[in-house]
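Reply to dn_fold:

You asked what the input looked like. This is it:
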Amino acid sequence: MTDRVPGQFTLVLHSHLPWLPNHGRWPVGEEWLYQSWADSYLPVFGVLRRLAEDGFTDQLSLGVTPVLAAQLDDPYAAASMHEWLADWQLRAMEAATSRDPDRADTGTREFRAAAAALADFETQWRHGGSPQIRPLVSSGVIELLGGPLAHPFAPLLDPRLRRLSLREGLADARLRWGSTPSGIWAPECAYAPGMETEYAAAGVRHFMVDGPTLHGDTALGRPVGDSGVVAFGRDLTVSYRVWSPKSGYPGHADYRDFHTYDHETGFKSVRVTGKTVPAEAKKTYDPARVDAAIDKHVDDFIDAVRDRLISESDRIGRPALVVAAFDTELYGHWWHEGPIWLERLLRRLPEAGITVGTLDTARRDGYVGEPVELSDSSWGSGKDWRVWEGPQVQHLVQLNSEVTATALDSLDKRASSTAPTERDEVSDQILRETLMTVQSDWPFMVSKDTAAGYAEDRAYKHAHATREISAAADAGRDDQALRLARGWRNADNLFGALDARRLEER
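and this is what came back:
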């Protein structure tokens, strides 16, 4: 029998995309949602369902941001996703008839994958994501992490808007899933001193930060100041074995290459082959080659977790905690074989004598050390705020500041003249568009030069909506303000429960 390893291992997955429906299709826009849904959310949720059916509990902490949850529940997005899956199957059928044997093999493989995804979607997802999430929470296989409503970079946000976004995000989770998360994944793991008191006031008991925020000592969660709210840090020694800025398992030569497409079919048909091998020289993807690589990487990760738990427990003189955290979209979308690796890992960890649990379990079971004071931080480049406030995004920082000031001024004026017992569609939409403007995704995409033009267009579009509704409202043109508010609301049909009356007074 395998000896028990001291301590606990916790896997955290963070699921997030900005709001994409009705904002372009290809190459950035709705296609991003449908690819992530098909490649990651369908298979990862399948893994979790199977684990739950086999009696596994406390397997991982799963963050689902409110803005992603809104998309997975959106009727338009669900209908369009169904069409996208059918189109995938049709494209695969055409590729399977190619005279090129490699292209035909790819088409056949993609046809089978599309058929399986369609069957899964039609039986599990046609009524949205919430019916998938609720049973997983009820079964105990996951802990669900919440977050602020529209994924803002919170330290740079006006405090009134920041507190509202957090409260509304947690309320959105309860509305969709029937329970309020006790833990959150703060967008970008961003933190500024004092935010812990806001977490405590909202009922948050624990949150994630990156490893360097805890000065690399992530062996225990740490209460922040005297708030009682526990910060858990990502263990980079273990996490970087899977995915790091320079390396990780997905770069193995036999895995399917993410970046290289067959432009005739639109499918990814080659394997990584080598880090320096140009696209035209990459070898054809062969599924028969990957099974051994997956097992090797499962074993390697288990060894890394075991060694880390033992060494950290020895160092601190008590059972230690190891937290590995990743974007959910890594599994399947970025790393095609990732969901298989994930399921094998979670099934084998107990066989290796390793205790698996969630962040909530770790907090309740006492994997908590002495209080700590934290500094400004994130999990972005440099582990500071440069991605979201650096020189290359100063125009967006300025835009966010100006739009927020305009919106709050207009909202305060309306609050003083509107009966508090009535919902105000105009105020609600001003608030909604403001939150869409300040999403952390837009400066991230500009800083990283990933569809920067799209990100800027989205930020300025929502800023324009905020400004024109506010201008009409401030000028007393109530009919025009209402017409504009309804028009923009119709374009982005999300966060229907958002109520501007819950914004704190200035």
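The two ends are 63 Å apart (CA to CA).
Hope that clears it up.
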